[in-house]
Specification:
Blueprint: H1 2-23, E1 28-32, E2 43-46, E3 50-51, H2 58-73, E4 77-78, H3 81-88, H4 101-111, E5 115-129, E6 132-145, E7 151-160, H5 164-169, H6 176-189
Parallel strand pairs: 2-4, 2-5, 3-5
Antiparallel strand pairs: 1-7, 5-6, 6-7
Helix pairs in contact: 2-6
Length: about 190
């Protein structure tokens, strides 16, 4: 009887600590311009994401997921990707992450948007972890208002990997597409509340 009571006390202390370990850590960094009024943003254009990862085609895959999740939020009117591509053809020699303020303003006027959303796939990989593989993604996304070309929101987030519980119990990890979706949703939650 005494051993059972000690075991219950031990578990009462240990379980909250284990759950904190499994959920600890904020894997996002967010910047919000303190003086910008986001209520004026009605129409946005998503510029195709750049890919700095070793995963071929990651920029295009992440852009598609981002567009779908952004549309699902119903927070903004989003310009069709084909229209964005048509306007960007004029700036084909420039990487989209290196657009100048003047180019951002001009693209904004042509697309009739208040903001452009630009993103980078910093990492998208499958990592060997113990007896299995785990996908991980790191995205950097920013919103640039098109009147002055100034960044008004930026977020960096990492998702995936093998979590505490999957490592402890040997359960499977999420697929690459699931990790991308989680990462995108986490980023959007810092913009759309």
């Amino acid at each position: 009887m005494k051993n059972t009571r000690v075991l219950h006390q031990y578990l009462a202390v240990l379980l909250p600590v284990i759950s904190l370990i499994g959920c600890s850590g904020n894997n996002a960094t967010v910047f919000l311009h303190p003086e910008y009024n986001f209520q004026f943003v009605e129409r946005v254009a998503v510029i195709p994401f750049e890919n700095l990862s070793k995963s071929q085609g990651a920029g295009e895959r992440v852009t598609r997921v981002f567009l779908t999740e952004l549309l699902a939020e119903r927070a903004f009117d989003v310009v069709e990707p084909g229209e964005v591509s048509r306007v960007l053809e004029k700036y084909a020699t420039v990487r989209t992450g290196q657009l100048t303020q003047e180019e951002i303003v001009n693209i904004g006027k042509e697309l009739k948007v208040q903001s452009l959303i630009l993103g980078t796939v910093a990492e998208l990989a499958s990592v060997r972890s113990g007896s299995g593989e785990a996908s991980t993604a790191t995205l950097v996304v920013r919103m640039v208002e098109t009147e002055t070309g100034q960044t008004v929101w930026s977020a960096t987030r990492t998702a995936g990997g093998r979590g505490f519980w999957s490592s402890l119990f040997g359960t499977g990890s999420k697929s690459e597409s699931g990790v991308i979706r989680d990462c995108v949703r986490g980023i959007l939650s810092s913009l759309i509340k």
